[in-house]
Write a structure and sequence with these properties.
Chain A is mostly helical. Chain A has two domains: about 5-35; about 65-270, MetI-like fold. Helices cover about 75% and strands about 0% of the residues of chain A. In chain A, a hairpin with a 2-residue loop joins strand 1 (about 235) and strand 2 (about 240). Chain B is mostly helical. In chain B, about 75% of the residues lie in helices and about 0% in strands. A two-stranded antiparallel sheet of chain B has the order 1-2. In chain B, helix 5 runs antiparallel to helix 11 (about 205-235), helix 11 packs antiparallel against helix 14 (about 265-299) and helix 13 runs antiparallel to helix 14 (about 265-299). Chain B is globular. Classes of the chains: A mainly alpha, B mainly alpha. Chains A and B meet through helix 1, helix 4, helix 5, helix 6 and helix 7 of A and helix 2, helix 3, helix 6, helix 7 and helix 9 of B.
Chain lengths: ~280, ~300
């Protein structure tokens, strides 16, 4: 930006200090959460807070001895991966068609897909609940996975169509002239060029399914419960709030996402705006 | 076999074939439930009582518009959206400008990861966690407040404090998003124009209104719209922290819908409410696309 030359080294360092203070400020509730997860329940409840304490991994070990938690964690991993893989593949094919052939009704379908993203979850859950009860899909893995895939599709189609639009039609034409089949074009010519779009769609759908709570709570069952559902149910046992449990689960469950965002930061913008805004921060 | 394969290659068939999986998803999970929803909204249908469906015409909608509870939750929702999205936009833009010149920040990637964390972790996790930070007896926030002001605030348990307390958590979660959008908007301003403004020695507000905003305004508008829509949808965070309570102090429209459907099992009424929410969402979508097209046209 302008004016860099005018600033002295000291001012610059002060500026960097400010930026870091802001960053840590935003993160501080999570730091507190991590600290709590390393304390025993008595230590968490001690006020004034125990700043000097011997960290213990007791809570984490206890967590993995809970049968429910390991099962919920497996569910979270399994369902988010399978739903997202289905969604991205299916959306990629559709996005190719929308981008290249522009079949009749493309605009309408794109609009309807986007609307799906804008509807409050509580409004979607009512008819889905009725459908799932009637069809007997409640609490089944396939029911949950297909539902999550459906929920990830609008977003993926939007992102991928934007990226495929950005790949020149010339590539398709050249390959056709050289005798390449459409399948060859779709998977070998276009797909490698929209890798960033695929990654963005993948990451953001994973985050969505990983964090999703309401639908699993309503249309899932004991079998298919993910960690957020387990967390909601385990917050209090009787009248006592499970402080150590909350701190440990939230920390443990957030770490993979924080790592993901660290490595894939440049896809954050594309993902959060479903492809309508691009560029790096 | 050959002929079949060749048909597959023919764009006339291929274009539809590629859409089939998405359309199946769309029909089974969107269209059928939607028709169901529209149909049910004309009926009285309470799940647990086992009463048969009773056709009511528009009575469900009539009831909604005459119910105090729903107007109350609609106005709470709008307050939540306006104050929440407003605060997030305000702070986000300020932070965006502060971080504009941060390209040479040491460990910038780590710093940005720390800032963006609130918006990507599960709302259920942050909600549960703030619940224990807000605790009147053992919570860390009340420890500091007792130390400074000598009083204890029951953040989530008193009807005066519950709404602002939830709003604060929402703002913590989503200010980083508006900051991200501001950074993107600022990044879209061509360097040459900024340098020209520097050479011309333009005043800061001329730079803002003649150089920065003409390029960045659409991205900012998309950001504000997304925040509006998403905070209109807020659900998980309130569900964990207060479940709409105490009383209905934090009962936004999503929670009302949830309570109608899954506490009262009044599916007819809930469907009618869902349709109203759907229409609001569709109008938001149209506005969003309108801005998006304008942005595309401007580029």
């Amino acid at each position: 930006m302008e004016g860099r030359g005018q600033k002295t080294g000291f001012k610059r360092r002060l500026y960097h200090l400010l930026l870091w203070a802001i960053s840590i400020g935003f993160f501080s509730p999570i730091i507190w959460m991590i600290i709590c997860s390393l304390k025993t329940r008595e230590q968490i409840l001690t006020l004034p807070p125990d700043w000097l304490f011997v960290p213990t991994l007791k809570n984490y070990i206890a967590l993995f001895h809970m049968f429910n938690f390991t099962k919920e964690l497996m569910n979270s991993i399994f369902m988010s991966l399978s739903a997202v893989i289905i969604a991205v593949v299916v959306s990629f094919l559709a996005a190719y068609s929308f981008s290249r052939f522009k079949p009749k009704g493309t605009d309408l379908i794109m609009f309807l897909l986007l609307s799906m993203r804008m509807v409050p979850a509580a409004a979607v859950v009512v008819p889905i609940y009725l459908l799932y009860s009637a069809a007997g899909w409640k609490g089944t893995y396939s029911g949950m996975i297909l539902f999550y895939a459906m929920f990830s599709i609008p977003f993926s189609v939007w992102i991928l169509k934007g990226f495929i639009d950005g790949v020149s039609q010339r590539f398709d034409e050249t390959a056709l002239v050289n005798g390449g089949s459409r399948m060859h074009i779709i998977f070998r010519v276009v797909m490698p060029q929209v890798k960033p779009g695929l990654i963005a769609a993948f990451i953001f759908n994973i985050i969505f399914v990983w964090n999703e709570f309401l639908f699993n709570y309503i249309i899932g069952g004991k079998q298919t419960a993910t960690v957020p559902v387990g967390l909601a149910q385990g917050v209090s046992v009787g009248m006592s709030i499970q402080w150590d449990f909350i701190a440990t689960v939230t920390t443990f469950y957030s770490v993979p996402l924080i790592i993901l965002i660290f490595f894939f930061q440049k896809y954050l913008l594309v993902g959060m705006t479903f492809g309508t805004v691009r560029g790096e921060v | 076999m050959r002929g079949w394969l060749r048909n597959l290659e023919n764009p006339r068939y291929l274009q539809h074939l590629l859409l089939v999986p998405v359309l199946i998803f769309f029909i089974v999970w969107n269209l059928i439930p939607l028709f169901w929803l529209v149909g049910l909204s004309f009926y009285k249908y309470v799940l647990v009582t086992g009463e048969p469906l009773k056709f009511m015409g528009l009575a469900n909608f009539y009831e909604i518009f005459n119910s105090f509870g729903i107007w109350n939750s609609l106005s709470l929702t709008f307050l939540f959206v306006i104050v929440g999205a407003g605060a997030q936009t305000f702070f986000g833009i300020i932070l965006g400008f502060i971080f504009w010149d941060s390209k040479d920040l040491p460990f910038r990637r780590v710093a940005l990861t720390l800032i963006f964390t609130p918006m990507i972790i599960a709302p259920l996790a942050s909600g549960s966690f703030f619940r224990i930070m807000y605790d009147p007896v053992f919570g860390i926030l009340n420890y500091f407040i007792r130390g400074i002001f000598g009083v204890t605030i029951d953040f989530l348990g008193s009807s005066a404090w519950a709404f602002p307390s939830v709003l604060i958590v929402d703002t913590w979660m989503w200010t980083p998003f508006m900051m991200l959008m501001t950074l993107a908007a600022l990044g879209s301003v061509p360097k040459a124009e900024l340098e020209a403004a520097e050479v011309e020695n333009l005043s800061w507000y001329r730079r803002l209104f003649h150089v920065v905003l003409p390029h960045g305004k659409f991205i900012l508008m998309l950001g504000i719209l997304l925040r509006t829509i998403d905070s209109f949808k807020s659900m998980d965070i309130i569900f964990t922290m207060t479940r709409g309570g105490p009383g209905n102090a934090t009962e936004l429209i999503g929670i009302t819908l949830y309570r109608q459907a899954f506490d009262a099992f009044n599916m007819g009424q809930a469907s009618a409410l869902a349709i109203i929410a759907l229409l609001i969402a569709i109008s938001f979508t149209s506005i969003y696309l309108h801005v998006f097209r304008k942005k595309e046209a401007a580029e």
